[in-house]
Amino acid sequence: MVTGFVGTKLGMTQIFGANGELIPVTVVQATPCTVVQVRTRDRDGYDAVQVGYGTKREKRISKPLRAHMTKAGRSTFAGLLEFRVADASAYAVGQELKVSDVISAGDIIDVTGITKGKGFQGVVRRYGFAGQTAGHGTHESFRGPGSVGNRSFPGRIFRGKRMDGHMGSAQRTTLNLKVVQVRADDGLVLVHGALPGAPGERVVLRRAVKQKVASR
Hints:
This protein has about 220 residues and is mostly beta strands. The chain has one domain (about 5-120, about 170-205): Elongation Factor Tu (Ef-tu), domain 3, CATH 2.40.30.10.
C-alpha cells in the first residue's frame, strides 16, 4: 500500500472537536494522483510507485518528460513523486489514487514541505543572537555577530560557523502530526497544527516513522 500522498497547503483555520475543544488545523488540498510508473524488485531492485500530481501547462514541460507521462494517459502533470510500497504488483500505470485510500482520520503522519523564504538575514534574526551592547559610546554594528575568526592558528573560519546568510526556502519535515479529518468528497485533509511552507506550496504527507511511545 502507498504510504504517502501529495497535496497543496491551503492555509490554517480552526474547528471544534467532539468535546467542544478548539483545534487549530492546516487544510491540505489532496486531489487524486495518477500512477505514472511502477517499479518492481525484479527490474529495478525495489518496489515503488511513481505518481503524477497537479496540472502544469504543456509548453512548460520538456518533451522527454511529456512522453513519459503520456503512458498514464495525460502529459500535463505538475510533477512526479515516488513512494515505496511492499508489493508493486497491486498497481498499474494509469491507476488513480485517492487520499482516502492512503490516509484516514486519526492517523499520525509526517509532513514535508519547503519553508517560507526570508531572504538574506543577519545573525540576530537567523539564529537568535543577542547582538552587541548599545551603550557606553558604542558606535559599531549593534546587530553584528562579534568576533568570528581565530588566532594565527588555524587562521580561518571553520565550516558551519553561524553567520548571516540566506534564510528559509529549505526542505523541512514536521513529525507526528495527527489527521483530524479527511473529506474525501472535497479532496481535503485537515491536519492538527502548523505545516512547513507558504499557502499554495506542495506538501508531502507520509505515515509517521518515529511515532511517540507513551511513557509508563
